[in-house]
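Sorry to interrupt, but I need a hand with the structure work. Go ahead and set the record down below:
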Amino acid sequence: MMKTKAILSFVLLVVVLALAGCASQTGSIASNVQVESPWIRAAANGGNTAAFMVIKNTTAQEDKLIKAEAAVSGKVVLMSTEKKDGKMQMVNVDTIVIPASGQQELKSGSFHVMFMGLTKDLNDGDTVQVTLTFEKGGTIKLDIPVKKPTT
């Protein structure tokens, strides 16, 4: 009887620790997708701004960023800057591919997350909670710092 209780206690401890490990996967890691150096450009209430970051995929299968959400704007869209008819313009994209065992840099003049119709000022030093959803990697919540661009 004592031995059975000891084994059950050990199994329960292992389960609790395993669940705690799963719960710690929030923040900048979601199923082998890692976000590094995220930041959002400072902007005024009513305006638009963008988030930039490096997204790394440590798996052998490509993944896709399929959605971004934040409460600070009326609309959040995935965008790319492309050359059309000799002019650079931003276009909505359905997904941003994160290559297998690779990374995708979201930066000015390329892929980025666009926040349209800001509901408040975003000042240098503020933090914005953003939820990113990946096709395979699930969702992650990030607290992204707002920065005033240096250029």
Notes: The longest helix spans residues 2-23. The CA atoms of residues 75 and 116 lie 5 Å apart.
